[in-house]
Every structure is written in structure tokens, then in C-alpha cells.
Specification:
mainly alpha, 3 helices
Length: about 80
């Protein structure tokens, strides 16, 4: 049996998902020129790009060092 709170919970979940997706899209847009610059500087692998972002003092979306997977996800959002 569903209660009225279930509707509010579902709506809140959807709102949260949209907000997180928008933040991720904005961050990817912000990072695109930095990644392009790193690639122009010779970073050809995801690990090299991750190292370049970390060296610049940029933190990964969940904080800390960049990983190849995080770079791959940012690149997927900008394509």
C-alpha cells in the first residue's frame, strides 16, 4: 500500500537526479578547455589527462585525485 509520502519521495528523487546531472554537465563544460589543453600538451591517454587535471589542483567530481574513469565520464558528457 502506497502512502502519500511515496509520491513526494519519488518527486524528490527525480529532482535530485536532474540537479546532479545539471551540475555534472556544467562541470564537464568547464573542464573541456582544460582537457583540450592537456591533450594539446601531449596527454594522449585517460591516465595522462587525469594526472594533468590533478597536477593543476582540480579535484575530481567526488573529491580527490582524478581517475581515468572520471575523465572518460567527463569526455562522454562533452561529446
Amino acid at each position: 500500500m502506497k502512502t502519500g509520502i511515496d509520491r513526494f519521495a519519488a518527486k524528490g528523487r527525480q529532482t535530485s537526479i536532474r540537479a546532479r546531472q545539471e551540475r555534472a554537465k556544467q562541470q564537464a563544460t568547464h573542464l573541456a578547455p582544460v582537457i583540450t589543453e592537456a591533450q594539446a600538451g601531449g596527454a594522449t591517454t585517460l591516465q595522462a589527462i587525469a594526472d594533468a587535471l590533478t597536477a593543476r589542483g582540480l579535484t575530481a567530481p567526488r573529491g580527490g585525485r582524478w581517475t581515468p574513469t572520471a575523465v572518460k565520464r567527463v569526455l562522454a558528457r562533452t561529446s
